């Protein structure tokens, strides 16, 4: 019974992932928005992972990093007073 479940799960996983593997999507540029200021933990992490992520994606896209603080968005304005 366990072997049958494992075989079924593997078959479903492979079946659902084949269309994603067959797609030929190439990006020239990826915009990464970090919602915190420069030099923080999130910013440092994305900047450290960017070269590896660019090498791992097909076409080696350029990854642009933008730092946007959360209070610049208008729907957060009532909470900033």
Automatic annotation (TrEMBL):
The keyword Signal applies. It comes from the Bacteria. This is Uncharacterized protein. Keywords: Signal. Residues 1-22 form the signal peptide. InterPro entries: Bug_dom1. It comes from Marinomonas rhodophyticola.
């Amino acid at each position: 019974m366990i072997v049958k479940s494992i075989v079924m799960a593997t078959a479903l996983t492979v079946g659902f992932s084949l269309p994603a593997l067959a797609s030929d999507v190439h990006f020239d540029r990826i915009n990464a928005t970090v919602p915190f200021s420069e030099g923080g933990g999130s910013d440092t992490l994305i900047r450290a992972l960017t070269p590896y992520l660019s090498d791992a994606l097909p076409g080696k896209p350029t990854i642009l990093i933008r730092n946007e603080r959360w209070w610049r968005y208008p729907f957060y304005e009532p909470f900033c007073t």
